[in-house]
């Protein structure tokens, strides 16, 4: 998707060690017009999947998941990293290692918001190693829901996440592909 690729080439920063900072437009300061375009495109690509919910992980996945859900006209659910006292029981919980946070994080969803008859589209900001996507998929499966697709803004193809997620047997769509990050560069497909 050209507007996203252009913004990556203009504003993203290679921080080394495979870390791509998109803090200025996706996951700290959010460009709402760009997120709306991305959500519209992901919704278009998954329009025939029959999703009844969009699922993401807090925090960086919320903006693209929300706009995708808006264009699909379905609810968006995000997996929390901590459990507030307001979250009813029972809950589904999985752990996922985070490359950028450099720790394993909990992902928690209330059973009230993921149900056995749901058809879940997973949306996130990145597909890198695939651990977060697999944990979200596991949360959906714990609830009895079916995963119908995976949509991400940016895939870092050199980190192998697609191979790991391919075993889920659902379509995977990335709006921008980063093929490498050598010597401070960002190599877009």
From TrEMBL:
CDD domains: PRTases_typeI. Residues 50-156 form the Phosphoribosyltransferase domain. It is found in: Cytoplasm. It catalyses: XMP + diphosphate = xanthine + 5-phospho-alpha-D-ribose 1-diphosphate. It comes from the Bacteria. 5-phospho-alpha-D-ribose 1-diphosphate binds at residues 128-132. It is an enzyme of class 2 (transferase). Xanthine binds at residues 20, 27, 156. Its EC number is 2.4.2.22. Keywords: Cytoplasm, Glycosyltransferase, Purine salvage, Transferase. GO terms for cellular component: cytoplasm. GO terms for biological process: purine ribonucleoside salvage; xanthine metabolic process; XMP salvage. GO terms for molecular function: xanthine phosphoribosyltransferase activity. The keyword Glycosyltransferase applies. Pathway: Purine metabolism; XMP biosynthesis via salvage pathway; XMP from xanthine: step 1/1. Its main location: cytoplasm. The keyword Cell inner membrane does not apply. Belongs to the purine/pyrimidine phosphoribosyltransferase family. Xpt subfamily. HAMAP family: XPRTase. Homodimer. Converts the preformed base xanthine, a product of nucleic acid breakdown, to xanthosine 5'-monophosphate (XMP), so it can be reused for RNA or DNA synthesis. This is Xanthine phosphoribosyltransferase.
């Amino acid at each position: 998707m050209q507007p996203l690729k252009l913004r990556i080439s203009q504003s993203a920063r290679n921080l080394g060690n495979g870390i791509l900072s998109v803090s200025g437009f996706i996951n700290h300061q959010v460009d709402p017009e760009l997120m709306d375009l991305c959500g519209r495109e992901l919704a278009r690509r998954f329009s025939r999947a029959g999703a009844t919910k969009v699922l993401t992980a807090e925090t960086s996945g919320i903006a693209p998941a929300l706009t995708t859900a808006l264009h699909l006209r379905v609810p968006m659910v995000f997996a929390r990293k901590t459990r507030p006292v307001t979250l009813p029981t029972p809950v589904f919980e999985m752990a996922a290692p985070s490359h950028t946070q450099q720790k394993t994080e909990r992902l928690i969803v209330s059973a009230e918001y993921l149900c056995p008859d749901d058809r879940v589209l997973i949306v996130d900001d990145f597909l890198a190693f695939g651990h977060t996507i697999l944990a979200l998929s596991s949360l959906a499966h714990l609830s009895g829901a079916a995963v119908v697709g995976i949509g991400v803004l940016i895939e870092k193809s050199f980190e192998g996440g697609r191979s790991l997620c391919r075993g889920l047997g659902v379509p995977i769509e990335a709006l921008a592909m980063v093929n490498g990050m050598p010597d401070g560069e960002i190599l877009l497909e």
